[in-house]
Description:
Radius of gyration: 16 Å
Low-confidence stretches: 128-137
Mean pLDDT: 83
Distance between the termini: 54 Å
Strand order of the largest sheet: 1-2-3-4-5
Number of helices: 4
Structural class: alpha/beta
Helix content: 40-55%
Amino acid sequence: MTAPHPVHATGVPVLTLGETLLVSLQGELHDGMAEQLQQDISHRIADSGANGVIIDISGVEVVDSFLGRNLAEIAASASLLAARTVVAGMQPAVAITLVELGLTLPGLTTALDVDRALELLTRRSTPSASDGREKGT
């Protein structure tokens, strides 16, 4: 059987969609699970060569500073492994909480939903028609 292969160490599936990993968080993610998820994602990027990670948090209603920092750390680890991270589906209450906590989540791009996140990653990984050099004389 081929991909997608979920990771079971955290109970949070990490699915492979082409060159992108998709993680869907539902409900509360306990501290130990969040740390294990960070390790699982890093290993999956290294093993699969994925160039993007989408973390769908549409099922998360409450976020604390630990989870916010963990998302930023996932993005930092992914970046070191040459993958970009997009957080999709953030609820308004979660966004307000992150602002109130003063968390900026460096390294993360956000998208309204998974489709838009996938589009963002696809658009950024596709070479543009112009590579910055003038054609010429």
